[in-house]
Amino acid sequence: MAYDMGVYSDAVRARAARNVLTSASPLLASERVVLYPGLGKRLFDLAFVALIAVPVLLVLGILALMVATDGHSPFYVQKRLGRHGKVFRMYKLRSMVPNADQVMTEYLAGNPEARTEWDRDQKLKNDPRVTWVGRLIRKTSLDELPQFFNVLKGDMSVVGPRPMMCNQQDLYPGTEYYEMRPGITGAWQTSARNESSFEQRAEYDRDYFYKLSLLTDLKIVLRTFGVVVRATGH
Fold it and tell me: What DSSP string runs through 40-53?
C-alpha cells in the first residue's frame, strides 16, 4: 500500500477539528495540535533521553556483553517504516540467533499452526529464533534500549506507534501511523500487545493520534515502567 502524503494534512485537520469540539477554547485547541506533536514532542524526546542517558548506557553495556557471549555482534539493525513512510535503520539488542531468517522459514514450513499465528499476529509466542538472553531482554523490553539513539537522530520518538517492518505495510489497515514518529513505547506496547492481532494495532495508533498530548505521553511512560517490571513481553 503506497502512502499518500496528502493524508497528512487531512489527518491533522481532523485532529484539530476534534479538539476544537471538545475544548472551551478553539484557538488553544488548534495550537495544541500544532505545538506539541511538532516542536513540543521533539523537545520532550530530547529532554527525556538526556535525563536517562547515563543509566541506559550502563545497563546497555552489561546486556551487550551478555548477548555477545555467542561470539556475534550484540546489536541488530533492521529497516522500518517511519513518519511519512520514510524507511530508517532501527537499532536493537540482538535477541535472536544469527541465522534467524533461515530458522524462521524452516520452522513455519513445518508448523501450520505457527504459520497461522504468524500470519494473524506477525509474532509468535514461542519463537524458535530467540536465544536465552533474548528471552530475558524481550520480556523486560530491554532489547529496545538502543532505539534511544534513533530518538536522538529524529527517526523515532520516546512514545509513538510500534515501528512497522517494511513488508508489513500492505497488512496495516490505518493511515495515522504515517503521521507520527514510531515510538520506543506506546499505547499498544503498554496495553494488549500480547493479546491483539496485527490489524488491531491500527486502532491503538488511531486512538493515540487523536489523543496526542504531553499528558498522554507522560501516562504512557509511567505505564511502561510497569510493563518492564512485570516482564510481560515475549
Answer: IHHHHHHHHHHHHH
Residue 116 lies in a domain: no
The tally of domains found in the chain comes to 1
The three grid cell numbers given for residue 187, joined into one nine-digit string: 499505547
pTM above 0.85, yes or no: no
Q: Is residue 121 part of a domain?
A: no
108 burial type by CB count under 10 A (0-12 exposed, 13-18 middle, 19+ buried): middle
Q: What are phi and psi of 230, to 5 degrees?
A: -80, -15
Among candidates 37, 24, 25, 84, which has minimal Cα distance to 210? 37
Q: Is residue 117 part of a domain?
A: no
Task: Give per-residue pLDDT as tens, 95-154.
Answer: 999 888 898 999 999 999 999 998 888 888 889 999 999 999 988 889 999 999 999 999
| Cβ-contact 230, 222 below 8 angstroms | no
Provide the phi-psi class of 231: left if phi over 0, else alpha when psi is between -120 and 50, else beta: left
| Strand-strand pairing, 164-165 and 183-185 | unpaired
